[in-house]
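Let us work through a complete example step by step.
Step 1: write down the sequence.
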Amino acid sequence: MSKHDEARRAFLVGAAVGAGAAAGAALIPDALAQTPQAQPAAATPPAHAHGTTASQGYGAWFNVDESATIQAFTERLMPGAPGKPGATDAGVLNYIDLALAGAYADQRDFYRRGIAQLEAYCQATYKEPFAKLSAARQDEVITALEQGKTTGFTWPSAQAFFNTLRTHTIEGMFADPVYGGNKDFAGWLLVGFPGAHPAFTPADMASKEAFAGGVLIGLQTQAKRS
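Step 2: predict the structure and record it as tokens.
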């Protein structure tokens, strides 16, 4: 893993812990309003008809191309490494996909337009879609988004799109697995969050060491620690 990747992972983990994402992981993630400006009229849905992909055996909301874009983007935000799960390992794509099919349905057009603008920028700049760019070029695009230096973005703005994807990546990594991400408790294991436990012994309560129980418990699942 490069120093750049290590720094990005450290930032996301620090942001998650600092925001209480791990400590409050049993709670439903907040639906975030990332776009303070008025939203324009909804774009005409593309021919693949969002919302029908599940019946075609793929996804709850994203189509194949959109899924590839979001998976590549979130993996660069939270890159995996040997022994260190990344966004793909934790199922962040699945988390965002399910969220847009349900609780975050009001952000569907935000994502659709954001992805379309991202792909237009990549095609204009590199002649390839985002998912097919090298990791280095993907990082260049992400940095340009974060700094608002990309061209062709109107609504959502480049920075709003970046900030939303970063926030949803953190949620998908560290929220309770019941919401579709944090697969196999990858995010919780990464930050040492012990999960929910019904009771603690007096010794547990008196200890100054981090709790290290035998299982991780989520809202619906539990797993043995390795």
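Step 3: interpret the result. Residues 3-23+48-193 form one domain.
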